[in-house]
Amino acid sequence: MGKATAPPKKRSVFPLSAMIATVIAIPVGYWAFSNYRRWEAGRKIDAAFAAEMAALNESNNKLSNVYDALQVKTYQVCNKSSDQITVEWVSAAYHDGRTVKVFDSDRCTEWKPLVLAAGDNKTVLMRSSQPGCNWNGDVMYYAMRYVQENEADEKYKIFTVVGPYQNFDRDCYPFQ
């Protein structure tokens, strides 16, 4: 008798390479999907942080005007005109870190008008034994009345100015 031949092998519907690719693709797909979820969660956190920072920056921009207005500076006056300037009255609001205080030269009997020649610069302050009249020149908001005397024209101009003490060249109020 003759040798029996083996029945022909049936070919699988899926080749071996497809099965290997499927076995590899399932864990790689799971790994990619779980990493995508972590990346998406991080992206949401970053977006929330960026929105919070934008809101804080907007708030800081609005509050910067208040911050600038509340900065205590030294009250200085600069006579940039060719005329003599006489500062007759000064009032200043300032803070000592806890409370806002007000200096008013009209309340002080020892106040002497401040005279500035052309080109003169002076720090405005008051040393006195009278209660409430010691002032070191700190200012954040001011009011002042001064006279500009032009001797050539024999004219006197009286000015009253009020405002926050800020945005002056070299932090010095310029008379012009």
In percent, how helical is the residue content?
25-40%
Query: Major sheet, described briefly?
Result: 5 strands, antiparallel
Low-confidence stretches: none
SSE arrangement, N to C: HEEEEEEEEEE
Cα(first) to Cα(last) distance is 131 Å
Radius of gyration: 40 Å
Choose one word for the global shape: rod-shaped
The average pLDDT is: 85
> What is the strand content?
25-35%
Number of helices: 1
- Total domains: 2
Secondary-structure-derived class: alpha+beta
Secondary structure tally: strands: 10
Short description:
Helix content is about 30%, strand content about 30%.
Write up what this structure looks like.
This protein is α+β, with helices and mostly antiparallel strands and 176 residues long. It has two domains: 15-69; 73-175, no CATH class. The chain is built from one helix and ten strands, in the order H-E-E-E-E-E-E-E-E-E-E. The chain has one helix spanning 16-69, and strands at residues 73-74, 76-79, 84-95, 100-104, 114-116, 121-123, 138-139, 141-150, 155-164, 173-175. Strands 3, 4, 5, 8 and 9 form a five-stranded antiparallel β-sheet that branches. Strands 6-2-10 form a three-stranded mixed β-sheet, with no helix packed on it. Strands 1-7 form a two-stranded antiparallel sheet.
What is the secondary structure topology, with strand pairs?
Blueprint lengths: L15 H54 L3 E2 L1 E4 L4 E12 L4 E5 L9 E3 L4 E3 L14 E2 L1 E10 L4 E10 L8 E3 L1
Parallel strand pairs: 2-10
Antiparallel strand pairs: 1-7, 2-6, 3-4, 3-5, 3-8, 8-9
Quick tags:
176 residues, alpha+beta, 2 domains, five-stranded antiparallel β-sheet, three-stranded mixed β-sheet, 1 helix, 31% strand, rod-shaped
